[in-house]
Write a structure and sequence with these properties.
Layout (H helix, E strand, L loop, with lengths): L1 H20 L9 E5 L41 H8 L16 H6 E3 L24 H15 L1 H10 L1 E5 L2 H9 L10 H21 L4 E5 L8 H6 L11 H24 L4 E5 L2 H9 L1 H4 L3 E5 L25 E3 L7 H18 L1
Parallel strand pairs: 1-2, 1-3, 3-4, 4-5, 6-7
Helix pairs in contact: 2-12, 4-5, 7-9
């Protein structure tokens, strides 16, 4: 009898241990990304555009030191979010011809480097406008239905984490550096124009089944090395371009007002604001808190004006990108993206 009882106890304990060690169910079945180079995991590798980052030193801190098309030394926020929430380690680009069925079921990035909400932003660079990216979601949905059936595909899309991150290129390409829109709009009017585009995009994603949608605000554009350099600020000058940062704050205030209105008008949706501005400003003003040493220039090339082909294998690269806030003259390092991702994760956990 004692032997039987001991065997039962061992079976019970074994089952309990297995239950405890089982993987925690993920909060989201998949992740979908819309936007620009800050969230493009490699789509531009597969379209006709010069805005590509599929060569060294891009990817120097990525697994196996691969240059995948991500405009950074390593992973981007989509990868960090997917990993944190147990979806997968890396978010592949939708246009990758080798995209696996498994990756289709857990999500992709539709983002395109150089893109924006304004179609004029991509008129010269060949990138995929953000408002055209839902067309890829339609194609994705058709493939997903073929894999798992219509009902399960709907469940996956309904329950997925969707992130939209764009608008910096709109201001840089169309208002600040190349003032093509200034003849039509003042800064407030152009902000309103872009946010009308955001409304249209969110409603289209909602109609395609998306329900949990995060929209990133603007980062402090005036702190990027390229914008500082174009205003003749040197690395020794620790100030940002104040008017551009103020414009970003005003844009973000409008976005934070818009999103609750959209939430109320789209039944069953969960729409939230992704704060990029505050984490980056905190990094810029208190770099030692995060382990950064260089805030005013990027790690590759001169770090002041260069990106893309200017960050080439023939150029110089800093020995430790984790000490730099920026990788090139526009894009953050993986270490900076980690801080941003942690802020977004905190927001997501607070609303879901």
């Amino acid at each position: 009898m004692a032997t039987i009882l001991l065997s039962i106890l061992l079976v019970y304990l074994s089952a309990t241990i297995c239950m405890c060690n089982a993987a925690t169910p993920t909060k989201f079945p998949a992740i979908f990304i819309f936007g620009d180079s800050t969230v493009d995991t490699g789509n531009n590798n597969h379209i006709m555009t010069s805005l590509q980052a599929n060569y060294p030193p891009y990817g120097v801190d990525f697994p196996n030191h691969l240059a995948t098309g991500r405009f950074s030394d390593g992973k981007l926020v989509p990868d960090l979010l997917a990993s944190h929430f147990g979806i997968k380690q890396l978010v592949p680009p939708f246009l990758d011809p080798l995209l696996s069925d498994e990756d289709v079921q857990t999500g992709v990035s539709f983002a395109s480097a150089g893109s924006g909400f304004d179609d004029l932003t991509t008129a010269m660079n060949g990138a995929i406008p953000v408002l055209k990216q839902p067309e890829m979601l339609k194609q994705y949905s058709a493939r997903l239905k073929g894999l798992v059936g219509e009902e399960e595909a709907s469940k996956i899309i309904n329950g997925s984490l969707i992130l939209i991150s764009a608008a910096s290129n709109d201001f840089i390409f169309n208002f600040y550096d190349i003032p093509t829109r200034r003849s039509q709009y003042n800064i407030s009017g152009y902000q309103d124009f872009l946010q009308q585009k955001i409304q249209h995009l969110i409603k289209e994603i909602y109609d395609l089944g998306g329900r949990i949608i995060g929209v990133a605000g603007l980062a402090p554009i005036g702190c990027t090395p390229i914008q500082r350099s174009l205003k003749f600020k040197t690395p020794a000058d620790k100030t940002c371009v104040d008017n551009q940062n103020m414009d970003a704050l005003n844009y973000n205030s409008k976005l934070k007002k818009l999103l609750p209105e959209l939430l109320a008008s789209l039944p069953g949706s969960k729409i939230f604001y992704g704060n990029l501005y505050d984490p980056l400003i905190d990094i810029m003003t208190r770099p030692q808190k995060y382990g950064f040493e260089q805030t005013m220039k990027g790690c590759c090339a001169t770090g002041l004006l260069g990106l893309g082909p200017f960050c080439s294998p023939l150029g110089s690269t800093c020995p430790d990108a984790s000490k730099f806030v920026f990788w090139d003259s526009i894009h953050p390092t993986q270490s900076t993206y980690q801080v941003i991702a942690e802020s977004i994760i905190e927001t997501i956990n607070s609303i879901l």
